[in-house]
Amino acid sequence: MNTLLAPLDRKLLSRREILRALGTTAAFTAFPSLRAATPPAAKDSLPTQFYKSLTEEQHSKIVLPLDHPQRGYVSNWWYICPEQRLHTFYTKDQQDLVRQIFDSLHHPDHREKMNWQVQKDLMGKIKNTPSVGFFGTPADSDFEFIYTGHHVTRRCHAHTDQGLGFGGRPIFYGNFAKAFNETQYHEGNPFWYQGLVFNEFVQALDGKQQEKILVGREPRDESPAKVIEKRKTDLPGLSGAELSQDQQDKLLETMRRMLVCFRPDDVAATLKTIQDKNLIPSLFISCYGGKYDIASDKVWDTWQIESPDFVWYFRGYPHIHGYFHLPV
Prior knowledge:
By secondary structure, the chain is of the alpha+beta class. 33% of the residues lie in helices and 15% in strands. The chain has 12 helices and 11 strands. It has helices at 7-10, 15-22, 24-30, 46-53, 56-62, 86-89, 92-104, 111-120, 192-203, 207-213, 245-258, 264-276, and strands at residues 63-64, 131-135, 144-149, 152-157, 171-175, 214-215, 238-239, 284-288, 303-307, 310-315, 320-325. Strands 1, 2, 3, 4, 5, 6, 7, 8, 9, 10 and 11 form an 11-stranded mixed beta sheet that branches. The N and C termini lie far apart (68 Å).
């Protein structure tokens, strides 16, 4: 018997000593636990799985070039590939993958509401079913998945299931829950929580600041060419530079709370970009009265947070439209 492998000594030997004494192959045969675990193969992201499932025809219709003109487009109701809809152009397995992707883009606590919004805004018509697409291919570092439809535009980096922000391009969210013309309470609207959080911030401002944040002009034009237009000058409202440090911190926390419906990784990445670019002092916050303040209750239904590099437009009249664009 090889005394090197006597039971008493076996406990004293290091892995390296056993391998040296027996040789690698023999040692692995005698002691399988010595074999290093083989790391599992990296699993494709959900968007990449969907991409790889495409037929040649599907690929030709929905995989668009990186510089496609609609890559930076956003509207309250549009379709990236109008003739290719989820209910007609894809298999059931592919539709399920798209549903998983869409779910993954939202906080678990909000997924049911986000799916409800999409179904509600079909307005009972199958022709309103969303459309999806890709910009680029897995060979591109900026490979992007996009999901579009009525009151919905979502985007994500397609290489990973980790949220990296919204790709530096605009997203849209919106809904009218019970009526096209909503009341001041926006009953049932899954996005009105943002309005309530924003109004908490406004109520914490002093009197002069609240006067300055309310502007006597129209909010931005909602045409696709104008709604995410970044203004270099003539920015309305209260400047972030006029806020105390505590108020600036509260504004950042307000933005985090308003973004909470999206997946936490995307929220964290977005806030990091805002902080890294030191955007808070350059922001202008504005609210809009008249017809844009439903019931004239000074719980502001329509507001903007913007800078020369950022646009967040929340329009609550007659119902909620939300546009968000933070270049990276």
